[in-house]
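User: Just a sanity check before I run the rest of the batch. Below are the structure tokens for the first item. I only need the designed sequence back.
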């Protein structure tokens, strides 16, 4: 594939995913703890958050960086071309849940798009790697909890991701 096409596709996917994240995260200029206790600011940014007031332009830059990183993870874990809307929906999903990590010793691990706590790939990833786009889109409904609690906001966000995913051409 042409490198310019890849970059253009990633940029479009990042833009669509950022729109969903912005809708559901909501820009908060003052750091806060999310439902799992993680220090968060802006539109769901969690890495290196400082206890200070952030500006809108800083939040926009962080969101773009975070989405670009989530998209990079998606592209690496899937390893194939995807329809734009599927890629965007998985990018928002990965931004929200992370790539995941297997449990080792005292580390309980974390379920995510690429890997589950068990060390196995997520079903969504398996279906994406196989090009089963309908199967990918159907997986969003299974990811509506945080720390074992179902949240209405996650149900709505996963529904939005699924609608975007299913709108693929």
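Assistant: Here's the designed sequence for the first item:
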């Amino acid at each position: 594939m042409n490198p310019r096409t890849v970059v253009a596709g990633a940029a479009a996917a990042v833009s669509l995913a950022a729109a969903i994240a912005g809708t559901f995260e909501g820009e908060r200029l003052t750091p806060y703890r999310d439902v799992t206790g993680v220090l968060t600011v802006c539109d769901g940014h969690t890495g290196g958050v400082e206890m200070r007031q952030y500006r809108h332009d800083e939040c926009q830059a962080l969101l773009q960086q975070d989405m670009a990183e989530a998209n990079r993870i998606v592209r690496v874990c899937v390893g194939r071309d995807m329809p734009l809307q599927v890629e965007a929906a998985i990018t928002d999903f990965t931004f929200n849940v992370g790539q995941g990590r297997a449990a080792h010793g005292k580390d309980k691990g974390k379920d995510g798009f690429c890997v589950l706590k068990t060390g196995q790939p997520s079903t969504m990833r398996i279906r994406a790697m196989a090009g089963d786009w309908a199967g990918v889109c159907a997986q969003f409904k299974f990811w509506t909890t945080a720390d074992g609690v179902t949240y209405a906001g996650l149900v709505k966000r996963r529904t939005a991701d699924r609608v975007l995913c299913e709108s693929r051409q």
